[in-house]
C-alpha cells in the first residue's frame, strides 16, 4: 500500500516534470533527450501495462533491465568509474533486451560498490527481483540522478538529503523557483509511480491513480498560489522571506545553501544598513524643506522633529536675542562710558566751578583784607525745639546771599537779599563755621590783631556760636574753644622754630559798669553783658630773634532787644537800655567809619566801642558774625541786623599789619626807651617812674591780688571815664602766676613778654591805667602792637599821665575791677582738648561773679 508521502512525492515529481518540459527542457544537459525518451518509454510501457493489466511488472521490468542500464551509464559518466564491462554503446541494446545473467549481476555489483564509494544510497541486488524493496532502488536511482545533475553543473559538494533550509530571501527564492523544482525525469516518475502502485491490487490502482491525479492537481494549484505569493511579495518594497517547502530544501545543494547564506547575509547587511539609515534619519533632523521625507516618517519621529525644529527655532531666536543683547550691552556700555566721561567733565567743571567760587571768595576776602574791610559772616539759627514753625522768615540761602521774606503792609510779601562774606544755614555745624574762620584765627600767630564779634538780637545764637550750647560736647564746642585749641596745637607744632607764649584774658562789660542777674522773656539763658575773651600771643623766632605780637578779641555781645517785646521792667529794663545804648554807640561808630571822610569817630560813647576801638579802627582783621532768628515774628529785628551788617561790611579799615619787629629794631626801641627814662630822671621825676614800675599796687594787680574794693561794682550807674578805667585797670592785668613768678618783688623784672624790661612797654600797660582819660580803656584793651608802642599821640599822654597820675592810677585800679586773666605756660598745660573739656571756662576758673551766674563763655547769664 502506497503511503501518502509517496503519493505526494509522485505528484510533485509529475508536476515538476511537466513544468520542466513546459519551460523548454531546462533539465540537465545531456540527459534531457534521454529523460524524454525514458518518459516516452515509460509512457508506452504504462499504456502497455495498462492494456495488460500489469503495471507492477512493467515497472519491475523497466527498473531491473532497461532503466538500470541507464543508471549504469549515468554512474559511469558522473564518477568516471567503470560499471559495465563491455562498452556501453555495444552492450546496451537499443530495444532494452537483457544482458546475459553473469554480466548483468557483475554490472549490478560494480554499480552498488560504486554507489557505496560515492556515499550514495544503495540497495540489495535482491531488491531488483520480485518481492524486493523497490523503494530502495528508486531512492538510489533518484539520488544518483541528483548527483549526476549536480556534477553536470560543476558542483562537487557531497550530496545530502533532508534537513531544513533557512528561509530564503525573495530574490533567492525567485531564482530558485525559476529553476526546475525537482530534477525529476520521466524515469524517476515512472519508478515512483511503480513504487506507489507496486503493492496495489489491480482493482485498487484506478482509485490510487485518481488520488495521485488529484494530488497532482492540488500540487499545481499550490505551486501557482505560491508563485502568485512570490510575485506579490516581489512587488512589496519590504524584503520578506519565503518558506521553502521540503522539496525545495531537498533540491538545494550545499553550494546553493552557501550562496543562499551569503545572500541572506548580504540581505541582512542591506536590511541592517537600511534600518540603520532609518534610525539615523530619525535621529538626524530632516531638512525642513523636504516635506516628502516628513510624510513618510512615523508620527513620534515627526513630533520629535517638530519639537526639534521648535528648539532649533528657539535656539536661533535666542542667539539672535543674545546677539541683540550683546549689541545693546555694547551700546549701553559705550553710552555709559560717554555718560561717565560727560559726568567726569561735568564734575570736573563743577569742582572747577567750586574751586573758582572758593577762589573768588578768597580773592574777595583778600581784596577785603587789602582794603581792610570788616568781614561779615551771617548765621541762621534753627528753630528751637518745640517751637518749630512751618514758615520761616528766611526765604533762602545761596552761597553768600541770604534772602528774607519782608512782610509788606500792602499784603504781598517782598523778598530782600543781603550778601556777605559767608552765610551759614541752620544746619551748619560748629566745625564748618570755625573752619571758615580758621585762617583768620591763625593769623594772630603771625603777629596780626584779630577781632571776631558776634552780633544779633537776643536769642539768635551768638553765645552758641562763640561758646557752644548749654551742655557742651566736643562737636558743640564754639569758636572760643576751637580757636584756643587750634592756637595751642600750632604752638606745639612750631615749637622747634618759634617760641610762642599765649595768654588768655576774659573781660565783661555789664551795664557799662554794673553787673547784675536777670533774665528776659526772649531768652531764658540770655547774656546780659558783653563778654570778651582776649588772647595775647607773643612769638620769638628762635633763629632770627624776630618777635611777633598779636592779640585776638573774641566778643560775644549782649543781645539787642525790643523792650516792648521782651516785656522787661525794672532792672531788666535798665539792662536792656544799657545794652541797646552800647549797641547804638557801636552803630554810630560804624556809621562814622563808613563815612570815609568823617574825622571823628565816637568810640568813647560806650565801653563796648572803647573795647572794640582798636579792632574797628586799627589795622586789625575784624570779623562781625551776625545772627538771625528764623521765627517770622523776629523778621524786623533780623532785617535791621542785616542792614546794620551791610553797613559794617562797607567799612575799610586799611590793610592789616603784622606786629613784627626784628632784633635791631627792638634794640633801638630799647635804647630809645632808656634815653627817655634817662631824660625823665634828668628832669627829676624819678619818683614817678619808680612808683609806676615797682608799685606794690601794680604788683598786686599783676598777680591778681587787686584790692577787694576793686571787685565792688559801682552802683551809681553813671558812665564815667573813671569807672571805666577802674574796670579796665583790672582787665589790663596780664600774666598768670607762672609769668609773674618771673618778676622780682619790685616788679622791675620782665612782666612777661609784654613788658620785657622796656619802659615803653611798661607804659603800654601800667602807664595807661594811671590816666584818668577814657582812652586808657582803649589802650588797656588794645593789643600790644608796634602801632600801640610807637603811637605818638598816645606816648606823651602816657608819659604825662605817669608823671603825675600815680595816685589816680591806684585809685582807678581799685575801681570796679572785674576781669579774669589766664596766663598759659605751654610747658605745663595739659592737652588742649583735655583742657577744653575739663575746664568749663577760663572765667569760671579765675573768677566767679558775686551775684550773677557765669555762662560758659564768661558772660553774666540771667535766670528768671
Ligand atoms: N546754631 C544753633 N543750633 C542749635 N541751637 C542753637 C543754635 N543757635 C542757637 N541755638 C539755641 O538757641 C538758644 C539761644 O541761643 P543763644 O543763647 O546762643 O542766643 P544769644 O544770641 O546768645 O542770646 P542772648 O543775646 O540773649 O544771650 C539756645 O538754646 C541755643 O542753644
UniProtKB/TrEMBL annotation:
PROSITE patterns: KINESIN_MOTOR_2 (PS50067). SMART domains: KISc. This is Kinesin motor domain-containing protein. Residues 855-864 have a biased composition (Low complexity). Pfam families: Kinesin (PF00225). GO terms for cellular component: microtubule. The lineage of its organism: Eukaryota, Viridiplantae, Streptophyta, Embryophyta, Tracheophyta. The keyword Transmembrane does not apply.
